[in-house]
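note to self — DONT lose this again. spent like an hour looking for the file last time. sequence + predicted structure for the chain T wanted, 184 res
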Amino acid sequence: MLNEIFEFFKNPEYTELNKDNKTKTKMFFTLTAITVTFSLLLGMLAGLITSIVGYDYEGHAVMDMFEAYSPLLLFFLVVIVAPVIEEFIFRGPLGFFKNSKYFKYAFYSSVLLFGVIHIGNFQNIDGYYWLIPVLVAPQISAGIFLGFIRTKLGLLWSMLLHAAHNLILIGPFIIMKLLDIPFE
């Protein structure tokens, strides 16, 4: 599947797959594993680079949310609200370009804009602007996979993939907060 995604990324075309639900579900779980793996690897790489250059993640919007909200509200916002809203905004419009020669530009724009919107998570970026591509690389990577599943299976599947991605990555911290286990 990685090769299929790579070929899609090189030359994106909107082609929905007419598959049965069992095949779609298998594709969903495979893409979930790939998306989370890429996000983790790129996140670790970003962590290594930021450690080397002395960038401090303090003031990251997600950490601020963990301090301010209950575990239930965090779950609701991160696993339900954010995926639905962000998929409507970033992958929803791809349907308008379904039969357009401009689809690839719409796809690449959605991926980049998805990364750009997440720059807002980093509140102390002054002096480290050159790190922005590294910091949002996990979101840009996720945007590629979300755009892929959106064009192959539909918008609902991209919402589900986004929700699963967020649940897997943020879920353990929500559980730690629920159990009052410090994670600093």
